[in-house]
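#dry-run=false #mode=assembly
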Amino acid sequence: MATAVLPPQQRTNYLNAEHGVKSWLLTVDHKRIAILYMLSITFFFFIGGIYALLIRLELLTPAGDLVQADTYNRLFTGHGIVMVFFFLIPVVPAILGNFLVPLMIGAKDLAFPRINLLSWYLYVIAGALMLHVIITGGVDTGWTFYTPYSTAFASPKVIEAGLAAFINGFSSIFTGLNFIVTIHRMRAPGMTWSRLPLFIWAHYATSLVMVLGTPVIAITLVLLVLERVFHLGIFDPKLGGDPLLFQHLFWFYSHPAVYIMILPSMGIISELIACFSRKRIFGFNFVALSSVAIAVLGFLVWAHHMFVAGMSVYAALIFSFLTFFIGVPSAIKVFNWTATMYKGSVTYETPMLYAFGFLGLFTIGGLTGLFLATLGVDIHVTDTYFVVAHFHYVMVGGVVMAYLGGLHFWWPKITGRMYPESMGKLAALIGFVGFNLTFFPQFILGYVGMPRRYYQYPPEFQVLNVLSTAGATILGIGYLFPLVYLLWSLRYGEVAGDNPWNAAGLEWKTSSPPPTFNFDVDPVVDFEAYNYDELKEIPVER
Amino acid sequence: MGNTPFWPESASNWAQGVDALYIFLVLVSVVMCVLIFGAVAFLSVKFRRKPGVQPTAIEGSHFLEITWSVLPMFFFFAFFLGGALIFFHERTPPQDASEIYVVAKQWMWKMEHPEGPREINTLHVPLGKDVKLIMTSMDVIHSFYVPAFRIKQDVLPGRYTIMWFRATQPGTYHLFCAEYCGTQHSGMIGSIIVQPEAEYQTWLNGGSSSVPLAQTGEKAFAELGCASCHRSDTQGRGPLLAGIYGRPVALEDGRSVMVDENYLRESILDPGAKVVAGFRPVMPTFQGIISEEQLAALVAYVKSLTPSSGQAAGAAPAKAEKGPPQMKSGRSR
Ligand SMILES: [Cu+2]
Ligand SMILES: [Cu+2]
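#status=ok
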């Protein structure tokens, strides 16, 4: 990019407006809070990643040899809790959402800037508690905390871990609340609902799920702790409780939580595909409303996690039936994204490569979800590696691909610098290959019958496990690599300019990095979302 | 590690149906992947940026969007039906299946055959015969999983869960615990040995002195004093138990419930929970007094009582024919 602009240092922006640690820790600027989140969430991503690496190393051989059985159980529990609660759930909304929601709708900040900062502090407190649990021995319940194992058998650390997830839940509720109010009340003049970018629609739907679903897991965790401490007899049959009640409550949140993770990522993909095809998203309304449909339907299918748990036959039939319907809005999105490229002007920058990666992995993740919704097949593959593969395709293949795509896309906006393009492409490729090598063999492993959460396994499963571990190594490189060159780019990256992609959307109409209050002149919106036909074509140069 | 299976062995009546449905799903998925990935590749190359070519603004197409929203639903419906049929069948065990009690605990499986033999972490089953497992756990949730049979069922503390199958291939197959249950979860494994009928009979008879489960139950019934209230002459303080299994029973609060294994279990451990119409809740609880094994024996015994077989009273089993015993007024038929 040879756009001549002042170097970022010479203009006042949110990064250099104030200096010192205090100016960061007490900031109420949504963009700075996004950066705080980025640092802390990235930290937890690598903690979760180390867990994953140790798990894959242990599974390299059939015998349990690297660590003790109890240690292994703590590893996969730690991996699950850290990755789900401290990475996947907050990663897109708390980092990119925080940064972009006000910018995209033309607002100066979120509706409640102090609550936004409070959200981050809650996240940090919860995270510190979780770290304390990790350092002092860890929990071994699995991230699902199933009773009566968690209430009567597991190590007492489960109370602390539950508390960490509980506090973290409030961080999520506050973020959701903030987004909902902001999107309702703070849109710039002319920014009607139908002009809202799909990223905003996705975050709006996500926020609804956060606000409505998270209290249920909070209550469930409180009940769990009460039962553990006071032997209340809610979940433990020995005390007159019902262990399935716990599962119902847990999944009532944790299924929708899947959409808290994936919906914002879908929002990113819409932005990326529109920009790099230089077109409005095909069937904008369908894609926008499908986010809302997913958020609503997501609350009606939780018991598909419990088909072998001892539920009534008829309940299982109904939940199976409903689960298929949630496939429809996701399918619509995939088809519409693909169709967006038709008669477009497609280029293959790093963010677009990540979007392609997302389409591939999310499609496979979604299709294998149908296997699990199919009762007869689910009975065989549930609680095996098939499920592990399925949700990693959706969560890691979906969320991480989208997050990295979005991070590269908005990196120039966030930092004012470009990342090195060729390295970006290489990392996207390595990540995609590594991912498939890690998780595809697990589908086969699952159908052949290897149960999940096994620390040792019959020798005939070894070949597929070795492949998976090899893939995980490559995947690890694919994730470490961006960390290195993105840090490098902070100092040595090309200066980006306000709109390096010539992208539509309000966030590109302010400087990079934006000033503290986002826009020097209050924006007025007199154009539709993704008005790429009105933007000048940029010359082919990459 | 020499032989790496890419497909599980098939050894039960479920395997074929589940495999067929799975292959159908795989085929549809492969076609979908080819279509979607093909379209992504084709469109992204065909419409790559070319100097001087401007993109065309397209709003969308209701026809296309409705088509690709509705079309998948037909497939979804087919998947649902296929899966539901298998599942429904899996959840309706045949009446005459031979019933094996399974008690799970951290970290082992105990099996009790109706004929008496007990096994740990191994289960012998006859080839081609319907087998029903009545399972419970003494501690946490476990899950009984036999990949070669394509079936699994969680095993819960405090209640019975049921599964059934018919083995179709002689051999030895993996039994896994599929629900995470603590330290030795991955060590809670065993084998299912499928034998042709004759071989199975030899195995049954070869076991050490084994008393049939129902007979063990009969003894316990007398020793625990059940017989003093549940008398065969209908004069006791408790209802007659002969023939109640598999029939609905009217309760004091006006409801009516089906007498199955879980009902019998609850009646013994928590008699106050469902009181039979026409009786006072005087039965003491046996929670904490009897073991899971004794409970299984008692349940097996009560189930074995048919109206014509009469009912044990006291230590001396009353085997004499007494004619069809009259039913207490509260019993619905
Ligand atoms: Cu779910
Ligand atoms: Cu177990």
